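Lay summary. Proteins are chains of building blocks that fold into shapes, and those shapes determine what they do. In this project we predict the shape from the chain. Here is one chain we studied, written as its sequence of building blocks.
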Amino acid sequence: MGEAAVSTAVRTNSAARLAGEVATLARRVARPVGGLAFLSGALAHRLHATAEHIAGQALGFPLLVVSGAGVLSDDGEIEGESAGAAVVWSGGRTSVAAGSAATPTKVHEALCHRLSNAKMRRPASLLLFSRPQMLPPVALRRIAEATSVPCMVGAGSVGEHDLCAVDASGNLHSGSAVAMAVGGLSTPTVLPSLACRLVTPLVPITGVDGSFVLRVGQGTALELLQAVTRGMGGSQLLLAALADRHPTSTKRPEVVIRGIRGVDTSRGALAVSDEVRPGMLFGLAARDADASRANLQQSVRQARRAAAGGAPRFALYLNCASRGSSLYGAPDVDTRILRSAFPGLPFAGMQSSFEIGPVGGQPTLQLFSGVVALFAAPS
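And here is the predicted shape, written in a compact code that computers can read:
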């Protein structure tokens, strides 16, 4: 009798070897229905050729092939090397689509069209991966509305090459974005965790102009940045933290992190994101290893409570490329936390350019985060 799901990670420069590893995983699974393969290093640079090798295995189920700065599995993290990680699972049903176009708007429109043609009835989740800059934040909600999917999770690839989807017949599709609709499993538990700590309180935005935050509270956005920079000695990269509402005393704030893209000294303004609007809460944050570790531990505890009474089948962990050894000074910190919380659970993922997870119940593009997604059979 085969297993419900299996995962692996392997250091290799060989596309043929990785394809063979995926085929070996498939043989260990009872009636496999879906899979993901994550590539880094030289394999990522040969993503299409690697996907062709995988398609040539005639697996008989859909699979996505995407690229990151590193890969990870329940065996640990592999950073800065040519490697692949994969997970294959049974149960439910899957279909894949690829969207390719010249502009981000056209990419998500093409992806929605192809997903609608797949005609999967009531998918429980959508796994979505995109090249950097090809999936603006507003596109996520439009895709969710177009597909009526209750849960979306995914990440941004690393590199300028297209991503690939292999369908159940072994046909290869490539595009700036690829997606897999997953049905027949429970809606996954998806929890993001920030690799940052807030260094200011969250205060209301009182003035905006496009992507510029002009005023926060009673002062300018630049005054807030300058005050914090003086206090910290200017040694840390400061980031913008945005939230729709104040947290309660029993719940951590649902914050999204954005880079500070520019400064307009004449207006005291900071260029942040097209998402900013008056009334939104604004603060400043800094990357922090202790906060990152604590936030992931809290997310894992929440995930365990949410999964209580159920049996998770497999997990994905999509981890910002700014985490890992560059943040902690040591490898495998995040994967050890996951292994400790879910011993024996197969999982795979990658170090990504951005992450997709829920904020306020809506799919949201995240930065400097790690996103845990637990998939289980229907209860």
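What the prediction tells us: The longest strand covers residues 32-40.
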